[in-house]
Amino acid sequence: MSLKTDSIMENSGTSTTNPDGSITLGWKKGVVIPKTNLSFTIIQSNENVQYFRSVGMSLLTYKEPVKKDWKLVNETKVINTINCKKAEITSKGRNWIAWYSPDIPLPYGPYKFSGLPGLIIKITDDKGEFDFELVKSVPASKLKGKLINIKKSRYTDAIETTQPKLKQALRNADANTTAILASYGTTIIKGQEIARQREKEREENRKYENPIELTD
User: Fold this and answer.
1) In which band, very low, low, confident or very high, does the pLDDT at 132 lie, cut at 50, 70 and 90?
2) pTM for the whole structure
3) C-alpha distance from residue 131 to each of 82, 110, 191 (Å)
């Protein structure tokens, strides 16, 4: 979804110079920008899955090995005209049910899921809280000459770390932003109000947090 958003924004954005010299940004008529809460990039290979995320002014990354402990189930289903087989796995505190296609011999899938003998067409956790599904496929013959643009800033010059350290860096970045705004004291009342509001929103959001990964 993040890549789709990047591509649409790059090709569909408009800018208008106003009489006062300011610039108004907008979108071409009929363009719909996909809404996503994803603020990360994931690159999969046959050996590992690499996660990238910006934290403050830095780009951090960590690697995880491709999942090998899939349980292959003797059950089939047709999803969007694609013949699929079933597989199950427990990962990061959730039980997942996947449907993959041996007819498409690519060991990849959505998010961090990979390592099956075929492309993952659909994967859902057993509580039904997360559901990924391939809704459209395009023949390779129609992709000739077409490129998916990925901003280099999403994956180059990243600092390698671990998942727990990256999560801590995110918490530190939030706390630092609040501290900087508050440090201006009574001279910038609006800054103090923003700091208090952000902290209030964070506390409220924690009540409804339901991360895809319940454990590191």
Assistant:
1) very high
2) 0.70
3) 17, 10, 39
Can you point out the beta strands (E) in the chain? 13-17, 23-27, 40-44, 48-55, 58-65, 71-79, 82-91, 94-101, 119-125, 131-133, 159-160
Cβ density class 186-199: b for 16+ within 10 Å, e for less:
eeeeebbeebeeee
Confidence of residue 177 (pLDDT cuts 50, 70, 90): low
By CB atoms closer than 10 A (0-12, 13-18, 19+), residue 12 is middle
Is residue 114 within 8 Å of residue 108, measured between CB atoms? yes
Give dist(CA 148, CA 6) in Å, integer: 9
State the helix-helix crossing angle for 163-183 and 189-206, rounded to 10 degrees: 150
Give the span between the Cα atoms of 114 and 131, in whole angstroms.
15
Pairing of strands 82-91, 71-79: antiparallel
- The rounded distance, in Å, linking the Cα atoms of 44 and 38 is 17
Write the Ramachandran bin of 157: left for phi over 0, alpha for psi from -120 to 50, otherwise beta: left
pLDDT at 35 over 50: no
